[in-house]
Amino acid sequence: MSKKKIELSTNVEMLIKKYLDLNDLSLDELTNRALKAYLVNHLSSTQVKEALKQADESESSYSNKLFQSNIDDLNKL
């Protein structure tokens, strides 16, 4: 997994700190969940599938199931 460096605004940093204090998540888990939800919401299903297709084929089949699960979760909101 690659590592990326980001700079948080003061407001976002305070919100993250509060959220992490209330929930049992690491910053990595929160970041991955938030980015995934954002990206799935802002890309078409075709774009998501194309991006995931570039990954290993065995991971791709798992990702398609995960993608569908996330779509179902988002539809429940």
UniProtKB/TrEMBL annotation:
Highest taxon in the source lineage: Bacteria
Native source species: Lactobacillus bombicola
Name of this chain's protein: Uncharacterized protein
